[in-house]
Amino acid sequence: MTTLVGIKAGNGEGGVVLGSDMSRTQTGWNPQGDIAYRVQRRIEGQKIYVDNKRELALCMSGVFDRQYVDFLSAVLEGDINFRESVERGSFNELAALNLNRWEGRFPDTSLLNGLLVATVMKGSQIFILVFPLAV
Asked: Which has the closest alpha carbon to 27: 42, 13, 16?
């Protein structure tokens, strides 16, 4: 389980501190004949990232796979406009990532990705984005 912490300082200049654990669960399959066993192991992994413009820092939790990496890269490189999401009040790209994981089936909270974001776009702010409802 991922632990993410965000603290906003309110006095003086202000600022935000983000923290996370460094443990990631990696899931794979171990084939043995006609049967495959699901294997999980713990590995170290970074969970706090800063975008290329240095306007936001984010902690990301949830399923770590190709979709996660592609989404994270798009946010950090500016291909997903986070400023627009803040102004709109919803993060449609995160909602789409989570909905795509369900493949039109029943909601499965074990397949969600969540974000804890600190930004200087409107002063020092922290946003907790687990699963925005707007798509």
From this structure: 42
